[in-house]
Every structure is written in structure tokens, then in C-alpha cells.
């Protein structure tokens, strides 16, 4: 491990360099068209070293998915910090998510546009990262609800339900945000807060909507 | 086209028979493990006929995705029928969706669990069906909002936003519903109505949540 130049970097640093280059090249070229030569060159690391660390192009792609997924999960964990009210935590979580999408455009393309279209091991890693994100959001919802009696009382299932709805809505909105450059992360977060929180608050206060039962009860 | 037995069925009927069998076998075996022999046998149609109609196993799988996607889209279009208030339309749309998922379990497995893990042409068809579903939901939201001034005034973009959030939330909740047998389509629909509608109604009335701006404005 002694020597000059690139060889002196610790393995972890070199791995991150390769993943950074991988995310950029995969995002630009697509998974199938991307070649390891270009990634190695961009990372300023030899091609055999890329294979030594990641085994294959697929292995590197999976490492990219994992790193990007972990970044997202960390954002939610930080949002769930102590001393914030429920709506502040939700706002912080949604901001972290849409902020990640806008700031890490290449990572988002790999994670949301390319990875879900692959099969096999890659699909399995996408599922794992999605589950980790979901677990972090469930914690965020639980932590936000712990101050407000109703949801906390009803236990984990309500938090799971809300987390699945939020993650699904936010995932779906990433594509919409990308198609509308005027819709900044802050604007999209505010839209979603208005849609779900102003509602969630009333549910927490005990208000319950009931489906129409024969008569058209719901007025304007 | 004259003759006896299976040959007398019109092409469209035979195609639907093959698609029915395809959805059942794909759902049970998975896309890669499914074999056309089993599908042909279940449909009581010769294997060459399956290839004549659909070209390949991939072609048949794509036809299955299309048929299931169209069923879903039709459910939303019916929900957007005249003479219903906004919340009744939303309730009907969500009921149609979660009802489809529960009643057409094989179709849902193909559309939501198997198809998204494939690449190429299959992924393209999944995208097309998703876009068609989205367009139907945008129409549903628009039609529901047309009676209430605020959203209708603000035009198509709000309806698109709400539709993306709803479709994403509902898609994500299908997996959660499948993992919790006690959560019937009606219960899940009611949960989602409470989460988003009780909120949406207040937004339509002009209530706006604003993010915390330094001070912790949001109450408990």
C-alpha cells in the first residue's frame, strides 16, 4: 500500500470516487450502454481496480443504487430529529426528499429511472433500498405522531399506512417535478404538505370522513 | 373460418382466453419461468395459435399488461361519472382501484410485481399503461374539482399534481394491502380518503399551511 499517486488513497475513498463516476456515467448513458472504461477514466482509476472492487458492471451499478438509497434514508433520519413538531418533521422529511432529487439529479436518474427497469440482482437491491427508505419514513411518521394522541394510540399500522402513502406519492411526484422545471423542491414540498398535512391534522383531531351511504351526504 | 369446436370462436374471444390464461400462469410462475405450453393448454388453444396471435411470450406478456392496465383505466373513467360530488368521485375512483387490486389478484401481480422488474419493450408498455391510468385520474380530479372554485381556477397543473400524488400513494399502498389481509379494499380506501380528502377539502376552502419560518409556529 506504499507508493505514489493514486495508490495512496484508502480503499473507501477510491470506492466512493468510482461510485461517483459510475452514477454520472450510468445517468448519462443508461445501464446497458455505459462502459466500465469510461467510468474508470472519469474516476482516474485503472479498469482492473474497478473490477477488483465491484466484480462487474452490475456490481458497480448495485453499489451506486445502495449509496444513493443510503443518502436518501439519512435525509429522513435527520428530519426526524428531536424538538420539532409533527408538521415540521414532515416538512423536513419531504424537503429532504425533494431536495435530494433536485440536487442529486444523476443519482435520482439511476435510482428512479434506470434501476427499476432492470431485473435480477439489481431489482433486489432496489427493493432493499426502498424498504430501508420506508422504514426510515415509518420512524419519521411515528416520531412526528408521538406528540399527538390519536395516531400514537392506534399504533404502528397507521404510521405504516401513512408512510406508504407518502413514499408512493413522493416517488410518483419526482417524475412530475422533473417534467416541470418551474416546480422547485420547495414548491412541490409545500403542495404535498397542503394536500396531506392539512388533512392529517384534522384526522389527528378526530375528524373522520364517511363514504356516501345512499344519500349524497357530502355537500359543497 | 368455418369448422367445428375451437375454430369457430371469433379471434377476439380467443385472444381474451389466451390473455386470461397468460395472466394466471404468469402470476403463478413469474415471467421467466412461465412457459407458453402451459398457457396454451389452460386456454385450450394450440401453441402455434398463441404465437400466431402474440408473436412471442414477450408479446403475450405485453398484451396481459395492456389488458390489465385498460381495466384499471376504465374503473377511473366510470368513477368520474356525472352527478357525483367531488368526494364521492374520489371515493369511487379509489374504491375502483383497490377493488381491482383485491378482485384481480393475478392481474395485479403481473402488473405491479412482475412487469416493473422487466426491461425493454415490457417496461415501455408498463410506462404507457401508467400514463393512461394517470390521464384518467387527472380527468377524475378535474371533473371532481370543477364544482369547487379554487382548484378549477388554478387550472390543470393542480389536477396533475394531485393525480400524481394519488396514483403514487395508491400504487405504493397495494403492496401494503397485500401484506395485511385484514386491510380490505374498503378499509384502505377509507384510510386514504381520510388522509387526503379531509385535507384536500380544506385546501379547496382556501386554507394554506406555511412552513415554519424560524419560530415554531405550528401548534400541537
Structure, explained:
Chains A, B: This is AcrR family transcriptional regulator. Chains A, B: Residues 12-72 form the HTH tetR-type domain. Chains A, B: InterPro entries: DesT_TetR_C (IPR054129), Homeodomain-like_sf (IPR009057), HTH-type_TetR-like_transc_reg (IPR050109), HTH_TetR (IPR001647), Tet_transcr_reg_TetR-rel_C_sf (IPR036271). The structure is a homodimer of 220-residue chains. Chain A is mostly helical. Chain A has a domain at 66-204: Tetracycline Repressor, domain 2 (Orthogonal Bundle). The first copy, chain A, is 74% helix and 0% strand. Chain A contains 10 helices and no strands. The first copy, chain A, has helices at 11-29, 36-43, 47-54, 57-79, 86-103, 105-114, 120-145, 149-154, 156-179, 185-204. In chain A, α4 (57-79) runs antiparallel to α5 (86-103). The model of chain A is unreliable at 149-153 and 214-220 (pLDDT under 50). The interface between A and B is large, with 55 and 56 residues.
Q: CATH fold name of the domain at 66-204 in chain A, please?
A: Tetracycline Repressor, domain 2
Identify the most extensive interface between protein chains.
A-B, 55 and 56 residues
> Radius of gyration of chain A, Cα only, in angstroms?
21 Å
Strand content of chain A: under 5%
The biggest sheet of chain A, with number of strands, parallel, antiparallel or mixed sense and barrel status, is: none
Oligomer: homodimer
Segments of chain A where pLDDT lies below 50 for 5+ residues? 149-153, 214-220
Task: Tell me the span between the first and last alpha carbons of chain A.
Answer: 73 Å
Decide which structural class fits the backbone of chain A: mainly alpha
Element order of chain A: H for helix, E for strand = HHHHHHHHHH
Q: Please report the total strand number of chain A as a whole number.
A: 0
User: Which CATH architecture of the domain at 66-204 in chain A would you pick?
Assistant: Orthogonal Bundle
Shape of chain A: elongated
* Mean pLDDT across every amino acid position of chain A: 81
Helical content of chain A stands at over 70%
Secondary structure tally, helices of chain A: 10
- CATH secondary-structure class of the domain at 66-204 in chain A: Mainly Alpha
User: CATH homologous superfamily of the domain at 66-204 in chain A?
Assistant: Tetracycline Repressor, domain 2
DNA-binding region (chains A, B): 35-54
Organism (chains A, B): Streptomyces caelestis
GO biological process, one term (chains A, B): negative regulation of DNA-templated transcription
Protein name (chains A, B): AcrR family transcriptional regulator
Amino acid at each position: 500500500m506504499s507508493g505514489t499517486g493514486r495508490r495512496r488513497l484508502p480503499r473507501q475513498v477510491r470506492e466512493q470516487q468510482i461510485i461517483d463516476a459510475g452514477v454520472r456515467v450510468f445517468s448519462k448513458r443508461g445501464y446497458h450502454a455505459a462502459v466500465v472504461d469510461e467510468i474508470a477514466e472519469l474516476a482516474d482509476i485503472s479498469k482492473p481496480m474497478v473490477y477488483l472492487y465491484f466484480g462487474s458492471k452490475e456490481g458497480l451499478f448495485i453499489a451506486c443504487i445502495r449509496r444513493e438509497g443510503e443518502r436518501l434514508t439519512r435525509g429522513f433520519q435527520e428530519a426526524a430529529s428531536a424538538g420539532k413538531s409533527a408538521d415540521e418533521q414532515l416538512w423536513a422529511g419531504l424537503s429532504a426528499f425533494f431536495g435530494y432529487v433536485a440536487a442529486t439529479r444523476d443519482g435520482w436518474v439511476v435510482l428512479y429511472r434506470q434501476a427499476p427497469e432492470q431485473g435480477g440482482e439489481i431489482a433486489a437491491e432496489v427493493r432493499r433500498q426502498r424498504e430501508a427508505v420506508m422504514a426510515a419514513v415509518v420512524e419519521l411518521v411515528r416520531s412526528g405522531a408521538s406528540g399527538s394522541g390519536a395516531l400514537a394510540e392506534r399504533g404502528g399500522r397507521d404510521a405504516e399506512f401513512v408512510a406508504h402513502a407518502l413514499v408512493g406519492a413522493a416517488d410518483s411526484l419526482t417524475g412530475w417535478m422533473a417534467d416541470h422545471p418551474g416546480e422547485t423542491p420547495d414548491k412541490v414540498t409545500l403542495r404535498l404538505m397542503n394536500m396531506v398535512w392539512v388533512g392529517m391534522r384534522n384526522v389527528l383531531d378526530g375528524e373522520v370522513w364517511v363514504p356516501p351511504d345512499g344519500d349524497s351526504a357530502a355537500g359543497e
